[in-house]
C-alpha cells in the first residue's frame, strides 16, 4: 500500500516549496504574536476598559452622592419642622415660668433640639425604613441612617456630639447643625442657602468616609472581579482616596441642586417634583456609557471585555492569514501528486513500474497529509516559543494554543481532501486546480468577508449581513471562539472536518482506481 520511492519522489518535487511556505508562515506568526504582545495591544484594551470602569464608578458614586443629599435634606427638613413646633411650645412655657426672653430662647432651643432629634430617629427614620422594606439591622438601613445622622451629628450632651471623632479622622471639622438653628428661629433669609450648603458638604463627607472603608472597597472589588480590577487599579482610579471621592460628590450635588432649582422654578404641565428629581438625577449622574449612543457604548463595553490578543492570534491569523500560504501549497502539491502526473504523462511511468493505483493514491495522500501535519507542527513550536516570550493579559494559554494549531490542521486536512479528490477525478491540471483550488479559495475569501459580520468584531464596526458568508465556508467549523471561551462546541465541528477529509480522500482513491487513464 505504501511506496517509499514514490514518497521520496514527492518529497523531492515539493520539498523546496514546503520549506519556503513553512518558513514564511512561521515568520508571519512570530511577527504577529511578538508585535501584538509587546504591550501596545494590551495597553489599548486596558485604556478602554479602565475608561469604562472609571466612568461607571464615577456614575455610581454620583448617584449615591445625590441619594445621600436627598436623604439628608428630606430628613433635616422634617427635623426643622418638628424643631420649630417644639421650640414655640417650649419658648411659651419658659416665658410663663418667668424666664427672660433670652433665657427662654436658650431653654427652648435645647428642649426642641432633643425632641426633634428623638423624633427624627424613632419617628421619621423608623417610618422611612419600614416604607422602603428594609430590616432595621440591614446594610441598607444602616447606610440610610448614616446618611441622615452623620449630617445632623446629634448632640449627646452639652458640647458633645455623636460623630466628631469620625470627622476628625477624615481631617474635617465636625458639623454643628445647632449653629444654624438661630437663623431658623429668626426666619433669616440666608438660612435656606446656608442649610443647603451644609447638607451638601457634610453628606459628601459622609459618602467619602463611608466609601473608603476597607469592607466597602472589598464589596466593590468583588463586583469588579469579572473585569480583573485589582485594589491597586481601584486606587489609581481615585476611589480609594477620601479627597477625590468628596470632590466628585460635591461637584455633582452642586450641579444637581442648581438644575433642580431651575426646573422647579420653571415647572411644566404634567411634571411633578418627583419626576423632575428623577430626570435631573439621571442627567447629572449619567455614566460614560449611558451618555453615548447605545451602539457606541455597547462597542466600548465589548472592546473592554474582549480578549484582543486571543482574537488576533486565533480568529484572524490561524483562521485566515495563516491559512493563505498553506492553502496555496496544498493546491499546488495536491494537483502535482495525481492530476499533474497524469497530465504530463509521468503517471504512465509510475504505473508501468509495477506500482498499483491504490498504492499511488495511498502514498500521495500520506505525503500530502504528512507534509501539512509537519507544517503545523512547526507553527505549533513557533507559537509556543513566542507565547513564552510575550507578557500579555489574555485568556489564551498553552493548552488553547495547541488546540488552535490542531484546529487549523484539521481545516487544512478537510480542504486538502477536496483538492485530492479533484486531482484524482480530473486528468487535466487546469480542471483539478479550477475545482479543488477554486473551491478552497472561495472558502478562504468567504471567511474573510464573514469576519466583518461575526461576533468577533465589536458591534460598532460589525456588518451583520456579511455573517451569511460564514455559513458557506467549512473554515467556519474551526471554532476559535469556543476554544478561547473554554467550551466544547468546537469538538463536533472538528468531527465534521475530519469526516469531510476522510471521505474526500477515500472517494478520490476509489475514483482514481476505477477511472480510465490516458496512458
Report on the structure:
The protein has helices at 4-36, 40-96, 101-132, 139-152, 164-169, 181-186, 191-211, 214-223, 231-237, 242-265, 273-284, 294-305, 308-337, 339-344, 346-352, 357-389, 398-425, 429-451, 480-485, 489-514, and strands at 155-157, 160-161. The chain has a two-stranded antiparallel ribbon. 34% of the residues are buried. The protein is built from 20 helices and 2 strands. The two termini are 22 Å apart. Helices cover 76% and strands 1% of the residues. Residues 287-300 have low confidence and may be disordered. With 519 residues, it is mainly α.
List keywords for this structure.
519 residues; mainly alpha; two-stranded antiparallel ribbon; 2 strands; 1% strand; rod-shaped
Count of beta strands: 2
Helix and strand composition category:
mainly alpha
* Mean pLDDT over all positions: 84
The SSE order reads: HHHHEEHHHHHHHHHHHHHHHH
**Amino-to-carboxy terminus distance:** 22 Å
The percentage helix is over 70%
| Main sheet specs | 2 strands, antiparallel
Number of H/I helices: 20
| Lateral arrangement of strands in the main beta sheet | 1-2
Strand content: under 5%
- Estimated radius of gyration: 38 Å
Uncertain residue ranges: 287-300
Q: Please tell me what the overall shape is.
A: rod-shaped
Summarize the structure.
By secondary structure, the chain is mostly helical. Helix content is 76%, strand content 1%. The radius of gyration is 38 Å and the shape is rod-shaped.
